[in-house]
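Long-time lurker. I teach an intro course on protein structure, and each term I like to show students one example going from raw sequence to a predicted 3D structure in token notation. This year I'd like something fresh instead of my usual example. Would anyone be willing to generate the tokens for the chain below so I can use it in lecture? Attribution to the forum is fine with me.
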Amino acid sequence: MKTCDACHRLYADDSGFCPIDGQKLTPIAEAVVPTDPHDKRLGSTLCDGRYQIWRTVADGGMGRVYQAIDSKENRSVALKILHSDVAMDAVAVARFKREFECSAALPHDYIVEVLAFEKTEDGSFALVMEYLEGEELRMLLKREKVLSPERLVRMLSQTALGLAEAHNRKIVHRDLKPDNVFLCGASEGDRSKILDFGSVRDNSAGAKKLTVMGTTIGSPYYMAPEQAQALPSLDHRADVWSMAAIAYECLTGTLPFVGSNGPMILLAILSEEPRPPSEVGAMYRVPKTLDAVMEDALAKNPDIRVPTVGALADRIGHAFGLEGAHAEWAVTPQDELAARIRAGVKGAIARYEEERARVPDTSAMDAAFRTEDPFKAGSAGGPAAFSDDLVMGVPKGTSRWIFAAVGGVAILLGVVVALLASR
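-- Reply from a regular --
Happy to contribute to a lecture. Here you go:
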């Protein structure tokens, strides 16, 4: 293997220059092993000398990810190692080990390959994974705000195929977000990899539960309503909702539900409806054909939600005018998808407008029910919100003499009834 003396990335023997720094690569045998006084693992070997760590890739709340050399297989791997304090938490370690077990049981082109679960010499635990070149979807969205239609369709189609494997085994990812979708660059387009099965819910018979009943697991912005409520009925449709929220963000550059903190985000998810993506993403020319798709995919009731991630990918592709289904689109080059979308999207919009024209226009009625004072003379809207406009069934502003007259009649009737009863 070879390395870059500037960034310490690792490359295969047939590589010549580092694409990041432009420097000529050095054979590992001739390179100086990097060290860091703040991280003793850097440059060291772990797991009986099998893995030598060359650089830090990422740092998170649970652990740190390194790029290392697997001396036994002579290849580059990623080591995800728990922080020392996390390694002392038995439940955290159990989740970490379950991430290995679930990922290892799901070998798939669109799921990161997990190779081993190891105990390190410094008392922690390491997950050994294939090393991926590319970037998380989160980083791409930070830089570009949105994805092109063809890039979105290909990513959704690939993740749908990967998640289908998990869902068929009754495994719910439960933490799908742009941070956990990795895009590997390739000549024909992105190759998506689903990361981090550490928060899964295993609904298969006899599966061990690591989450206390009523505990909420996941990332608030991408959390389905039933997940936000920690309902025991949660199943694969929660992942459908999460992928729909990701797709909405990729289309519009905006999250479907927002709030100033976690509880406020969850409240919005439970009580509000998202704005149509064609309205929010007008500057990105999001077609109206996607409005109904997002409405169905983000339905609060899972029984009426789009049933699978594959169905979601299909509907989004069709909304852009594509023919076929996600299994084909997952392997179609992005340039070809782009050409097909350009050729088909106008037809999809025309069909949508044609269908809309056949549906009765209820906008006037909707406006009527939004007026502030339905009983006001000359009101353009007619009857609307009744909660503040009626008092015991009588319109506001009714003259007081009416209440007196009604009371007098009631008293008179009472006297008549009493006289008849006394005979």
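Some talking points for your students: Residues 390-422 form one domain. The first strand starts at residue 2 and ends at 3.
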